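::Amino acid chain::
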Amino acid sequence: MTVATLSNADEKNFEMPTVEKQTLSDSRLTLRYTELNSDAKMPTYGSLSAAGADLYSAEDVVVPSNGKYCVSTGLQLEIPIGYYGRVAPRSGLAAKHFIDVGAGVIDSDYRGEVKVLLFNFNATDFEVKKGDRIAQLICEQIGNGTYTEVTNLETTDRGAGGFGSTGQSTMTVQSNTTASTSERIAVRFTQLNENAHAPTYGSEEAAGADLYSAEDVVVPANSKVCVSTAIQMELPFGYYGRVAPRSGLAAKHYIDVGAGVVDSDYRGEVKVLLFNFSKTDFEVKKGDRVAQLVCEKIAHCVYEAASELENTDRGDGGFGSTGKSAMENEPVVKKVKTNQSETGLSSVSIEFTKSTENAHMPTYGSETAAGADLYSAEDVTVPAKGKLCVSTGIHMKLPLGYYGRVAPRSGLAAKHFIDVGAGVIDSDYRGEVKVLLFNFNEADFEVKKGDRIAQIICEQIAFCDYQKVDTLEDTERGAGGFGSTGK
C-alpha cells in the first residue's frame, strides 16, 4: 500500500508574540477554547495578517485513497455571536496531496468537538500524524437572515441570468442599492411551486439556514445533480449567500456542494449542485435538507493597477494561505482608506500588478456581484480526475481585515464538474494568485488564455485572540449536530 505523508519540516508553528498582538488588538476578537485531551493544540496564525488559524490533528489516522475521514482536533470553541468559523482547506495539502475539506461550518453556539472532515481524492492513502496542520479556521462575519415570503421580488438588471454567480462579462452600472443596518437582516423570497420550503435555522445561533429539495432526484455515484429548491430570494446589497455543505451529508454520505455563490442581484431559482463522491447512488426526496445558506458580509472592491506592491515579511512565500512558520519582524501596516459610496457601504481598494501580458484585471459580472472573475493567463489542460494550478499572472494587495476567497464559477461546476481547491489569499500574500482547479470529470478540461476560471470574493474576517479556559458557557444547542445546523 502506498501512503502519502505530511511533512512539517519547513512548517513550524507560529504563535503571535505579545508585541504583535497589541499591534492589531483593536481588530481582534477574543475566542475562548478548551482542550479535550493532551494531544490538542491551540490554533495558531502563520503570519501577522493570515486569514486563517491553523488547526492541528490530535490523532494518528490514515485517510484512505478516494475516501474520507473525520479527524479529531481535541478542541471545543466559543465563537462570538455574529460570526462563524469556516474550516477551510490548506493550500499545500490541496495542491500537493489532493486533499480537500468537506462541510466545515462551526456555529457560534456549537460546543461539541471541532473535527475536520478530510476528503482524499488521490489514488494513494494519506497519513496524518498528531500535530500535523490539517486545515485552517477563518472567523467570518455574517448576516443572520430573517426570511419573509412575498409575492414579487424587486427587479434588477441581472434578473435571472447567470445562475448564482457572476453571470455577465463586465460591470457597467454603478450600484445605488442600500443595505439594512439592523442586527437581523430581512431576506425576502418567493416560492415557485408547492414543494418549496422556506429556509430554516436549526438552532438560534446557527450560521446557515437549511435549504430543502423541491424534487425527488438521484445523485449518481461519482457524479453530480443540480437539485431544485423552487425558491427565489432577495439578498441585501453588501452580502452574498454561500450555499454550503451540510455536515451530516458530507460525513455520512460523502456529499459535497459545488459552486454556491448567490449574488444579491440574482433573481433566478436557487439550486444546489450536489457532488456525490461515493460509490453508491444518493437518493434525495422532496423536503430533504440538501445544503445550508450562509449570509456572508463582503466588501465590494475597486481594483487599481499599480507598478509595485508594498512589501511584507511574508512576501511571496506559502502560496495563498498561512505559508510561513514565523515572522522575524513586524511588518509595516498601512491603514487602507475606504471610499464611502452612495449606499453608505465601504468601497475597498485593492492594488494589483501583472506579471505577464496575458494577465487580466479581475472584473465583476454585474453591478452587485459578490465575486470578481479571475482569468487564466495560460493555455493548459486539467486532466480527467486530476488537478492543476492555473496561472492568472496577477499579484494583489488585499486590505488588512479581509481575505480573498477564490471560489468556483457556477457554470464550470454545473457543466464541466470543475471545482476549486483551497483558495485563501491573505492580505499579506504577494505571490502570484493561482487557481487550483479540481476536475472530477471523466474527460480532460481545456483552459484557454482569457477564460474565466474562478471568482475572488473579498470577505470580511475577524482576527482572533485564542484564550484557553477551563469551561465554556452552556447553550441549548450544546454538543448536538456536529458543526452545523443540528436540528
About this structure: Helices lie at 18-23, 91-97, 247-253, 410-416. The chain has three domains: 3-140, 145-297, 300-327+336-459.
